[in-house]
Amino acid sequence: MSPIENSSSWTLESDLEDLDIDLQDYGPSLPPKKVPNGDIFEASRAGDVDRLRYLLETGVNVNARDRWDSVALYYACLTGRLDAARLLLENGAICSEHTFDGDRCHYASLNLRIRKLLKAFEARPPPLAPLQASLRETFLGCRHNRTYMKQSSDANFDVSVDEMGSSSYFPPDVVFFVQGRPVEAHRVILSARSLFFKQKFENEWKDRREVRFSKEKLSYPALCSLIHFFYSDRLEISVDDMEDLVRICRVCKCESLQKIVEKELIHQKYAEYKTHRDLDNSMKRFILQGVSLPEEDRLPASLHRILRVDSLADVCVRVEKRSYYCHQVILASRSEYFRARLSRVNDFHEGKNGLPGDSLPFLEEHDLSAEAFEKMIEYMYTDGLEEISPDQAEEIFDVASRYLLFPLKRAVADALLPHLETATPAELCHWLVLSDMYGVLKIREYCLDLVACNFEAFVETREFRAMLLTLPPPSGDSSLRTTVPSAPGATMTTDQGNLLDDLREKWLEAEALELDMRDESALIFDKRLRMLVEMAEQEKSESEAEDNKDTGP
Amino acid sequence: MIPSISLHRQNKTKKISIPVLQLFLILLFSPKSLRASQELIPNPNPIVSPSPIPSGDMSNQKKRNFQIEAFKHRVVVDPKYADKTWQILERAIHQIYNQDASGLSFEELYRNAYNMVLHKFGEKLYTGFIATMTGHLKEKAKIIESAQGGAFLEELNKKWNEHNKALEMIRDILMYMDRTYIESTKKPHVHPMGLILWKDNVVHSPKIHKRLLNTLLDLVQKERVGEVIDRGLVRNVTKMFMDLGEGVYQEDFEKPFLEASSEFYKVESMEFIEACDCGDYLKKAEKRLTEEIDRVGHYLDGKSEDKITSVVEREMIANHMQRLVHMENSGLVNMLLNDKYEDLGRMYNLFRRVTNGLATVRDVMTSHLREMGKQLVTDPEKSKDPVEFVQRLLDERDKYDKIISTAFGNDKTFQNALNSSFEYFINLNTRSPEFISLFVDDKLRKGLKGIADVDVEVILDKVMMLFRYLQEKDVFEKYYKQHVAKRLLSGKTVSDDAERSLIVKLKTECGYQFTSKLEGMFTDMKTSEDTMRGFYSSHPELSEGPTLIVQVLTTGSWPTQPAVPCNLPAEVSVLCEKFRSYYLGTHTGRRLSWQTNMGTADIKAVFGKGQKHELNVSTFQMCVLMLFNNSDRLSYKEIEQATEIPAPELKRCLQSLACVKGKNVIKKEPMSKDIGEDDLFVVNDKFTSKFYKVKIGTVVAQKETEPEKQETRQRVEEDRKPQIEAAIVRIMKSRKILDHNNIIAEVTKQLQPRFLANPTEIKKRIESLIERDFLERDNTDRKLYRYLA
């Protein structure tokens, strides 16, 4: 459920299996443990991937150092936790051998597999933002494009295609044939990114599903990497193909990209004199991040433009009697819900009431406000969120969960956090319940911390007591109470456990009690809660009675 | 009271300050809001009343008292909410299963499922969906059970497709649960769960499980006996097994399938082996194998291919391997004898698939080869003619080479087996080196006339092949040297190139040492030619009279033969003296001795009635004939006195002059086959011949006689001694100390390319070296030898 899983994962495994080492060398020195309440360092050391994922979701700094000046990745490497290390790396842990932290990790690696993992990530560009990542997945979901990625990228960059099942596949609506090889694409994306394609699609290629280029000069790898760039805002190209790319850019009127590539070509020309070519015969690749381009030429800006100008729209979404013209490929790429909905159109009722004639297919969404939908669409297209008021936050949480747009929740949470600084206990209770419901871990964690630290103040408020009534009682499971790691393999619901259990744990932490006192203190806490619940019930019946009196005869 | 809250948590400090006024406000408004929440049940039954609560209302409320409204926005107070929503979803699932989904709204169903999960009814939804689906599948199972005969599989397939379609739709509706609730509780996801339910309720239902398996196996069985079946249907069903998971496929289908196949082929192979000969059996086995591979391609999982082929291999081949190979009149030996390349190829390809298959074939082939080769080389009849003998070996080798290259795919192990077999039996006959050398001699004397260079190379290469098998290569060298010498001196060499190319081959095979003497012989021939030219240009007066051609041979390079003295006729000896003085004049410090026994002479003779002939004779014969210039009749004694040729040589030479019919230029009295001491000789005036030139050969045994053989043998042994000693010294020099067994082993290894050293001989050599103070025995351990520098 986290974006971590969404981000394309890499086929390191297969690569690592090639190493001809005794199997015993692979495993960590100790079996992985569960540390339900450990910090990022403990979780890394124990190899508790679930906990780690939870912590990362709550926004912990992955490169933070503990009081021994060590980063989490260091512990994962030291103890040989391959999965944990990988998770950290995928979330941007620094592992370059030339940095202090990275060097330590390399040095501490328990086995060759870990070392190889570090190496693989060293040469890898940082993870893509959610928008780019999901569009890239759509691009690679097309069968023919996958073969391109496979052959063009070296082992480290290879994308595991098998893991993206057919489910993440949104059918392309145009196929280019270059030098006899097919490239699949979606008109909307190409039109958004390049004026050239837009005009072509409006005129000559209007009704064509296939476009064949017969020009000898047009090279397949160059075009592929350009289209890949259109989707992902990241250019990956071998140096040999760069001249072809410049030519294509000129035709496609991608001026800013052309300029950068041309500049880089000059660099490369001189670089050849500097490096010994014999030493490294592997194909040299050039990687360009979208950040290098001017703002208006990046993917979010381009999509923002087409959101405003709906001439390319191929679907209409009706919310609260208002129509929004959208693009199927973007909706489907960003939200599994829409992908399923668009592909299931014919199976359900919706297929029938499509408007006659050539008007766009249309979807009706109920039970949400147009404003929230607007915000969501904006986020879908641009990965950005205009100013969000706390009033709207809840609705957007709802929308984000409902449309399985989990990165949005984080974005909203980030926007919301400053507002919470000045929130009242009652508001905080409200946010706590909400964040628990929608799984906004960052907010939930923040609220829990505050409640635990200011427990007495919250006890005073009636809202807090009222809240207790709506929550399931804390579990009596004492194994959850201490930070002693439970036995390996113990079944645990790691993220989003019982809210009051978590609160108790935080409270114990805040009170900083000695370990042997903890069980006693926990009992006291439970007793206290029971009392509060009783009080709340009493208050509730009183107020009901009052209400009855008010509304009575 | 203004509560100021400060929190201390380890070393971090957060502060929040809460204005008291706001706190009050909340307290005031809260009761109202609670009441509102009870009235606002969000959209309890959207299908029945699809218009939701007007959103305008909601936003109004929100604005009125945000903090508290938000509190209960989604709180479900209606205790029946979950049940109601679930009923809607349950009805939808039913409709989907009844293929009646077109009336359903995806958006609505999804929203309902989403709300259920959001309000923590995930558990209810999950168990409900499982229960509903289980119910449907139970019904489906009943329908499938009731299907009769052939319709059974079709019905199953149909239901499976329906289930798949429905499952996909349900998964999409329940997507939110799939992504959140199931993810966090680590339960099986919707789609896998649907497959599990199908497996448990349909495939594993007691009435279907066995029947399904038996139907499938029946179909396969039918196809094996030649009936046509609906492959597409079987394919779909096996694909279903695969979709349910590899474990299900293996357990529920593959394993019984393999067992049934094993049983089938066990019976069939027994039938076949009783009824067919080896070739036919193999044909049938091959056909079965391709059928099975075909079957896998058509309707089984690719991973089954290895398993089913291994079953066929085991039952059809491995279990009957020995019997097949040794089958009377059609087994391997028969195939080899009759050059049945196709059958052999088939056998190779099939046996390669089973463990030890090829080893069995190879062993039988090797033992057959050895048996046959042994007969070939030890048969005294066959070893009479050396050329024929070697030719037979070569033919045999060609035959097996062809078998290996065409039928056995040039398998290295078979080539090795072939080589080791040849090595084994060639060395059974001690005369093999001689025969091979004779074969070469024969080829180079006459056999190569009119053959292209390329073919010559081919023949020589084959000879080299045989040469490689020889263990006693030095014996070959000895003979070869003799034969080359004879060829060179008698000028019988057909092709200089061929000679040289063979020497090059020997050189690459055995090293420089082996051929240096042979090369010396060729250089001698060359320099002799130059010398003769020089001799005649310095003595221009000699252009008339007899011509002398001298070949100066370096001692050592040539096979030594004791120089037999003889008195040359005066005309010749004068010439000889002139040459000697010429030669010694140009080359100082050399000694010339005449090898008259190796020379030849062309003499012109006029017989009684004026018949003129040119006689080609040996030097000895010339000496004898020249005597008749001065007298008509000579006795044996006189001849012996005049020429001083040793008796056996003289007898042989007289025999060839007098006793060979058609070439008897002198007559002997009395007429008899053998030469006696008292015989008289006269010129045969009546000698006639069709040819002008008459060649009178000496009676020479081509093969060595027994004593000669012994002599050669002895010389070889003699030559080996220094080589063994040299090897011992070389080894000891580097090792310093070594025990007896190791020395023997190392010496044998070092001398391998030349000959097989005899351990007793090595021991003798060691002792001799100890005597000469090259080595000494260790004082403590008598088995150790030390090298004395």
TrEMBL record, chain A:
Residue ranges of domain BTB in the record: 172-239, 313-389
SMART domains assigned to the protein according to its UniProt record, in alphabetical order: BTB (SM00225)
Entry's Gene Ontology BP terms: defense response to bacterium; innate immune response; regulation of defense response
SUPFAM superfamilies in the cross-refs: Ankyrin repeat, POZ domain
Swiss-Prot/TrEMBL keywords: ANK repeat, Repeat
Pathway: Protein modification; protein ubiquitination
Protein name from the UniProt record: BTB domain-containing protein
Pfam families per the UniProt record, alphabetical: Ank_4, BTB
ANK repeat residues: 43-67
PANTHER family named in the record: ANKYRIN REPEAT AND BTB/POZ DOMAIN-CONTAINING PROTEIN 1, ANKYRIN REPEAT AND BTB_POZ DOMAIN-CONTAINING PROTEIN 1
InterPro entries in the record: ABTB1, Ankyrin_rpt, Ankyrin_rpt-contain_sf, BTB/POZ_dom, SKP1/BTB/POZ_sf
UniProtKB/TrEMBL annotation, chain B:
Residue span(s) of domain Cullin family profile: 431-658
Family annotation (InterPro entries): Cullin, Cullin-like_AB, Cullin_homology, Cullin_homology_sf, Cullin_N, Cullin_neddylation_domain, Cullin_repeat-like_dom_sf, WH-like_DNA-bd_sf
Pfam families named in the record: Cullin (PF00888), Cullin_AB (PF26557), Cullin_Nedd8 (PF10557)
Residues spanning the signal sequence: 1-36
Database matches in SMART domains: CULLIN, Cullin_Nedd8
Transmembrane annotation, as ranges: none
Record's keyword terms, sorted: Isopeptide bond, Signal, Ubl conjugation, Ubl conjugation pathway
Family: Belongs to the cullin family.
The protein's name: Cullin family profile domain-containing protein
